[in-house]
């Protein structure tokens, strides 16, 4: 089994989970690599970087990761990636989310506008893509039309730094106001708020 990691030294590293040793470092980005996402249907690993690009790597087959393609379209650092409905989504400091379609030669088919801050996190839910920003806004996008389905403002307008989807009951948000909030994925209502200590949440 293999684990991939991004680093501040611009590398994507490949780790053997059994031996816990690094199999190799893959070069291509020119600045920090801050996000990774695997697209199983394509056997492709995507990496997002502060060099404003998304790089694609062919993985599997026993040959490690092979540089495949560079996607350009953002004007600032790419902070988040997600595989949603077979598409690759990238979110950046430039306040935009780009939808890349592997079935159309990785064409950027949609540019999602709605946030007024850095896109910090992206996650896939059944039928939706959900994004968070450093202004505390959470937006649910319809994964077919790519239009805004719902917008939540996380009080008190602090950054929603990380997010994960739990099938039962919903979305877990990690925020920098020292709390975890669990939202019902269907009704988008707060199920529970949990304190996480005096330091801001980071993941």
Automatic annotation (TrEMBL):
Species per Swiss-Prot/TrEMBL record: Hemiselmis andersenii (Cryptophyte alga)
Protein name, as recorded: Guanine nucleotide-binding protein subunit beta-like protein
Ranges of the WD repeats in the UniProt entry: 1-25, 26-59, 71-101
The entry's keywords: Repeat, WD repeat
InterPro entries named among the record's database cross-references: WD40/YVTN_repeat-like_dom_sf, WD40_PAC1, WD40_repeat_dom_sf, WD40_rpt
Lineage summary: Eukaryota, Cryptophyceae, Cryptomonadales, Hemiselmidaceae, Hemiselmis
Superkingdom of origin organism: Eukaryota
């Amino acid at each position: 089994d293999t684990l991939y990691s991004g680093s501040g030294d611009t590398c994507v590293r490949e780790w053997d989970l059994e031996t816990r040793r690094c199999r190799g470092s893959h070069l291509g980005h020119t600045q920090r690599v801050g996000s990774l996402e695997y697209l199983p249907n394509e056997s492709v690993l995507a990496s997002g970087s502060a060099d404003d690009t998304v790089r694609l790597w062919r993985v599997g087959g026993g040959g490690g990761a092979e540089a495949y393609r560079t996607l350009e379209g953002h004007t600032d650092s790419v902070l988040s990636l997600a595989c949603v409905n077979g598409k690759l989504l990238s979110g950046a400091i430039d306040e935009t989310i780009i939808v890349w379609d592997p079935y159309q030669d990785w064409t950027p088919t949609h540019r999602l506008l709605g946030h007024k801050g850095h896109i910090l996190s992206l996650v896939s839910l059944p039928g939706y893509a959900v994004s968070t920003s450093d202004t505390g806004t959470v937006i649910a996008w319809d994964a077919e039309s790519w239009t805004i389905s719902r917008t939540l403002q996380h009080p008190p307008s602090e950054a929603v730094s990380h997010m994960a989807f739990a099938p039962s009951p919903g979305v877990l948000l990690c925020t920098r106001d020292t709390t975890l909030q669990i939202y019902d994925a269907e009704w988008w209502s707060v199920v529970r708020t949990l304190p996480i200590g005096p330091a801001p949440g980071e993941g």
